[in-house]
Design goal:
The complex is a heterodimer of chains A (253) and B (229). By secondary structure, chain A is mainly alpha-helical. Chain A has helices spanning 2-24, 30-39, 41-50, 54-75, 80-98, 104-109, 117-146, 148-153, 158-199, 203-228, 232-250. Chain A has one domain: ABC transporter involved in vitamin B12 uptake, BtuC (Orthogonal Bundle), CATH 1.10.3470. The N and C termini of chain A lie far apart (45 Å). Helices cover 36% and strands 27% of the residues of chain B. Chain B has a six-stranded mixed sheet with strand order 5-6-7-3-8-9, sandwiched between helices.
Amino acid sequence: MQFLLSLTAGILIGGVAGYLGTLMLSKRMALVAGPLGHLTLPGIALALIYGFDVSLGAFPFVILGIILIWLFEMRTKLPMEALTAIVFSAGVAIAFLFLPIEQAETALVGDITELSLKEVIITAIFCLLVFFVIKKIYPQIILINISEDIARAEKINVKKYNFLYLGAIAVIVALGVKMVGGLLTAALVAIPAATARNLSKNLFQFSLSGLLLGMISSFLGIFLFKIMGFPAGPLIILMAAFFFLVSLIFKKI
Amino acid sequence: MAESILKVKNLNVKLENEEIIKGLSFEVKKGDVLTILGPNGAGKTVLLKTLLRLLPYRGEIHWLPEIKIGYVPQRLPFIKDIPMNVREFFELKKASGKEIKEILDSVGFEENFLNKKIGELSSGQFQRILVAWALIRNPDVLLFDEPTTGIDIGGEETIYGLLAKLREERNLTILLVTHDLSVVFKFSDYVICLNKCPICQGIPKEVLTLENLSKLYGEEVKFYEHHRH
């Protein structure tokens, strides 16, 4: 029963993360998920110490991270990579000031092996909600990714769509850190999408295979955890990485 | 006398404290082809974007009310990162299947082109696709920003031939940015020479004198020498 709960949550989070990843792969957004994951570490640490939900602890820090990204984009001309590296590594540093070392593993690589039914239901609701939001904003975000100028010339409210998009990222990162931890969340979003790009001829295949690869990687990762006993988070990411390597064989050069 | 589709009065654009366009006024008549000519960095692309109200400006821009504008940007560097076929690119603009086929036909592509991946198009093919994309929903005006590099040989010839044909068929007014003088003489009714400040404007044969042209491009030479140390 516990295994089925973990599996359900894992497949849902993995699938939606992979789907979202197909939007983030273009431009430099893929770089953002990594630092966002790192920044959640103090939140995860707090959640572990005081015994509340990891996603709940992570969420305010993701929001903080998104506000910071937004400020960087708007206010400075410095390369975002440089700025994010500084601020978000600081997140890691702060977390380890007070995180008890025996709980470090959960914070870094996640743990969904002890989910309650209630947690799974809440996870499922958020995943479905985010899925439908992404589905709704998908064409507009693609257009904005291609060029903000043509999107605005098409009378698309770029601010509104970016807001929904960042909101979806925030929820997925907060759910993702519970499953694969602060260090690996970026991979959960980025790897299935990268694999999907290697295999896809068009946007439909791309988004669908991102979703499916995310689900399958989570399924296999959690399944392997069940038989081998290694932590599920790293196994999920390793499965995703394995599919990426396989996709390189099929990629047309 | 054809009616005015666009009136611009004393337009000033300043980006990051640099004056890009200073004191520009002009008018575009319905059905005309207006060319904006000038060296690189002269503010041509900025002018098009300002006319689309994508950039902040001072002065007046009056389009005829209810006018529909199609925009062909200079280049879309990020588009090749996204696996997408031609049909899906058009669907981003909510175009119907019938409309897509018609437009594709009028820019000279077969229907099977719809399943081609955008990233696999040649630069010339992609530019024609961009023109077709801009023509979805039948705009009255086309703003065309010419890419400065990267169009395959022969491509430039076809794109202006195509624009001339489309203008005829669709009764288009065209505002185009170029640095190519032959295009101006062959194709346009009115020219604005821009190098931050307007240098001259009028009918190409009358205003594109040797003196005006050296004023227009002479600046560029000075500019490059100044920065090359």
